[in-house]
């Protein structure tokens, strides 16, 4: 079990805090808005009313001992930069900060953020990819260089064996599992024949969306 602190209980901060709790971790929620703290207090481990730009208030929370501190202060760019700087000066090892623009992100990185995230930009990219990739059912970006996707079996693959398709050599894709009706097959023989109603769980490079489009 890890300990996380989330500063800023807007929609994004609340979602992160709630998800971390569901995943079994301890979460300290911080916001200067009393109503927001009341709303999240029944979900997280601890909830504190505090102004994160106040150095004394921030120091009193002993955030240095947490596994990571997430700074999610909405569009208040000045507050997010100042908070990140204070956390860095306090010796917090891992600071994850939300940015609203590329310039904002660059400043956050220079002031101490170890990871900068762009929620709206990342979501826009994800939606755009799903719109042009009709064959894709689900997609999880593991890193910028790898993603895990679930796709319907392309028509030109139906009736062919994995050995004949040779996805790894031809497309740098690895087939992890096949979902067939209510079963999931994870031990796959080279002689496995793909069916029309199968869905495939595939892992590959970040450009796998393009590759999957080529084989669809």
Describe the structure.
The protein is α/β, with parallel strands linked by helices and 216 residues long. 37% of the residues lie in helices and 27% in strands. The strands form two sheets. A six-stranded parallel beta sheet has the order 3-2-1-4-5-6, sandwiched between helices. Strands 7-8-11-9-10 form a five-stranded antiparallel beta sheet, with no helix packed on it. The mean pLDDT is 86.
Work out the oligomeric state of the chains in this entry. single chain
Weakly predicted, low-confidence segments:
none
Shape descriptor: elongated
Beginning-to-end CA distance, first to last residue: 42 Å
- Could you tell me the strand content as a percent range? 25-35%
Biggest sheet statistics: 6 strands, parallel
Total number of helical segments? 9
Q: Helices and strands, in N-to-C order?
A: EHEHEHEHEHEHEEHHEEEH
Quickly describe the structure.
By secondary structure, the chain is an alpha/beta fold. It has helices spanning 11-22, 34-40, 55-59, 77-90, 102-111, 119-132, 162-165, 167-171, 208-215; strands at residues 3-7, 26-31, 46-49, 68-71, 95-98, 115-117, 136-143, 146-152, 174-180, 183-185, 199-205. The protein is elongated and about 65 Å long.
